[in-house]
Amino acid sequence: MLKTPFIVALSLIAIPALSSANEPSSLQTGEKLYKSACIACHGTGAAGAPRFGNKQEWAPYLSQGLDQMVDVAMHGKGAMPARGGTKADDATLRAAVEYMASRAK
Question: Residue 37 maps to which CATH number?
């Protein structure tokens, strides 16, 4: 008698969990953009870009906060072009900034 409501309730819990298992996390999305574009400068420090994982070089940017860093990534600064020269959407660009920042803490 209670089997049907239980099965319905279980499916409401399980189906979203299964569908999100195949979706990449924000950090995975950010890592993908970093490896395809950002690494060119942030991997080497070209044009004064803070190098990936270098806590000392990232400290001044991290102190300004994530929103400010995303704004710079979106609009460019110095030798860095807007959106890092990519056509990444806002969410993907933010994910790349979060990815790089997470590795410099």
Answer: 1.10.760.10
